[in-house]
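Researcher: Quick one. two chains, 573 residues in total.
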Amino acid sequence: MPYLFVAPNMFIFLTFIIWPAIRGFQISFYDSIDGRTFTPVGAGNYRAIFGDPTVAEVAKNTAIYVIFYVIISTVLSIAFALIVNEQQFAKGFFRAILFLPVMLSPVVVGLIWNDVLDRKVGPLNSLLEALGGGSPGWLIEPKLGMIAVIFVGVWVHLGFYSIILLAGLQGIDRSLLEAAAMDGATRPQIIRTIILPLLKPTTLVILILATIHGFQSFDFIYTLTGGGPFGATTLIVQYIYDRAFQTPIQYGLGSAAGVVLFMIIFAFTALNFLLGKKRQAI
Amino acid sequence: MSKLQERASANKWSSMSGKKPPSVGSILRTTFLLVMTFVILAPVIWFVLSSFKDPTDLSARPPKIFPTTWAFSNYTEAFQMYNYMRYFTNSVIVTVVATVLTLLINSMAAYAFAKYNFRGRDGLFVLTLAMIMIPLQVILIPIYLVVSSLGLVNTYWGMIIPAAATPTGVFIIRQYMLTIPDELIEAARIDGAGEFRIFARIVLPLCRPALAVVAIFSILWRWNDFLWPLLIAQKEELYTLPVALALLNGQLVVPYNIVLAMSVMSIIPVLFMFVFMQRQIVQGIAQTGIK
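Model:
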């Protein structure tokens, strides 16, 4: 009887996750442009991934995006969590606002910022022009495109990380903070010497989650820059998608990129799990 | 957050910032939060206002904040001249059916893991949780090949079934079911109720809070999901809203003013959930770390 209860879930996992995962690993050693005929190429796809200049460009973009996205998200979400937590006036309102972008469809978020950052008719540039700041081509120049994508990535997810940190803050023993206050510690001192150290486990979770999310980013970028300008914001997931749906179609190469992405995500998930175990032990 | 919790967390800092006149710190804090509010709300409000502009207003330099004439026609044309209703219906079908299916099969699996002893239980449970490590992005190409060899490309079932089994759903419901006393199930068995009947009539109704959390997350995720329906729905009549908005905008098939109106309409259901279910969503995230 219990097997009947788990059967539907297990059937789906087997058919749509485990089997494709095995197939993907297989295909990564072949070359295919139609998904029907496969030519074995040995480790050729992996060699291409670590040698091909296009892939190197994608890897560089992904690394830059993930590094800045993770650092900025973590620092800002700690700052916002602390601020919202101490806020008394309209606390619920500010928390709701911070959380709003998390609910929006990433596709629409991309469209929103595409509109706002438009070089000619976007409100940001008209504001900048009024202030005498010129009108930068946010979505036209490669470097600015990357900055825009990082900024919007942080904008979308900040509320999500802040909520996890806020929960961590609620878990801190009040008596500790009150004792410190009674001993005459100032608030910055309390934050630096008590709150931040106690928040370290939660911060680690945020770092790892943000890294995993960063590597998976795709949807809002699709409508914000479409991976451009000149491929400057094409990250690994879009690269994999393109290998199946844009010329040149290369299922093997895309699958190999998927295997590499899996190993990255696996490493960080395992790290998260191990740290979680350690946390429970303490 | 309930009134009581609200008060408790407000009291938290009372010894430091109690009933004194607003301190420099609190002014700084509020200013900071007001800037944040502006950075978050201004683009959204700008976007909503843009959706009421006609093409002339949209290309005006410098851009106008308010439309010169409110072009409600953007909205009516989305229905009359373009297929908004089709995309909306597709999104509703996929979201509703997928959520019902997810609740059913996830709670079934959760029940087996929580209330039965059987060979391989722990192994299968670990295997279920391990599925978190293989996100769609990683197996994009092979899963597309598998799904198309099964003839599921360009079908509703293709959009619904493959992602209906979720490790987090199973986990959340299982944790909740562990709190249901075994005696209750034993008693029903002695009364002669069948196993599935016990599950459907006794256990499921007791799990309503956990099911609600899973349902809310499933609805939000399915409504906003892009990559999976993008793979499966390659015919326009199957586009869900996110796919339609992304592709129609990219291919310039639908004028930009109409895309704006469609986008705004597509976020209205989510905003309703945001207003009425914020507490459950926030708690769900805080507890599981998953969106």
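The domain at 43-281 of chain A is CATH 1.10.3720.10 (MetI-like fold).
Researcher: Thanks, that's what I needed.
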